[in-house]
Amino acid sequence: MPSRNPDRGVSVSTVLGRRLGSELLGMREALGLRQVHAAEALTASVAKVAKMERGQVPMRDPDVRALCHLYGESDPEVVERLLGLARLDRERRRARGWWRQGLDVGGLGEYIAMEDAATQIRTWQTALVPGLLQTADYVRAMCVVSETWKDPDEIEPVVSVRMKRQARLSGERPLRFHAVISEGALRQQVGGPDVMRAQLAHLVNMAEMPNVHVQVLPYRAGAHPCMSGAFSILSFAEPGAVDVAYTESIASAVWVESANGNAIYDRSFDRIARMSLAPRDSVELIHDIGKGM
Known about the structure:
It is a single chain. With 293 residues, the chain is an alpha/beta fold. 49% of the residues lie in helices and 13% in strands. The chain has helices spanning 15-30, 35-42, 46-53, 61-70, 76-94, 105-117, 136-144, 155-165, 183-187, 193-206, 259-275, 279-291; strands at residues 98-102, 120-125, 176-182, 212-217, 231-235, 244-248, 252-256. Strands 1-7-6-5-2-3-4 form a 7-stranded mixed β-sheet, with helices on both faces. The longest helix has 19 residues, at 76-94. It is elongated. The N and C termini lie far apart (55 Å).
């Protein structure tokens, strides 16, 4: 069982630990091997292997390599990706719930991994339409002004990844998505009026989905508790799983995976949602802004 204190790093079932353990479990079961075979390869107990596969304990690089060898996984890219997950998981456990990283492709990959595993995301956005609700042209316009992608040929793969991510909002296990967006983000003409009109129309359509909840914080709301910046809260289905809060600046990102830390984000999101327009009124405002462009 996971620790009852979610702030105590190593005994907690973390998101990255569960993802790593799940992939290794899948490899083992595909070969018809049992936990005792993995335990023998690691010179460890069966109980420890069970905890590894549940994401309850950190995994050392030699253990990951030994299991990949046992399971016949020799692809360097696959092995390195699993080693990367193990290293990130260890760093976050040592940080006791707080973890900071530079913004790079690897960081985006980790967020996508968490997004794929989440059952619910609540997001507060001050300057942008949320990524899962963006149109392709909106994404392109954002990439053009970014320093991250200097080569135009690099932009289309980014757009493609963003569009594929949006599949989480439909399908067999659709993500529950609650977005609260500042009115300013809807009036900022990203890509020009034509691109923005299409983006706002798309936002209205997406808001009609039963699992998508869109609210707008109007200018007239005045001062509010989330003026310091945007953030997202990701929730997971596993028993005992702790929510993960994510916020970023120009040069870094901060992850919070602790009960105490996330309580602050929970309260802030609840307050900003209560200050915002109801979903129906929000859609009307979005529609009116689009008509005015």
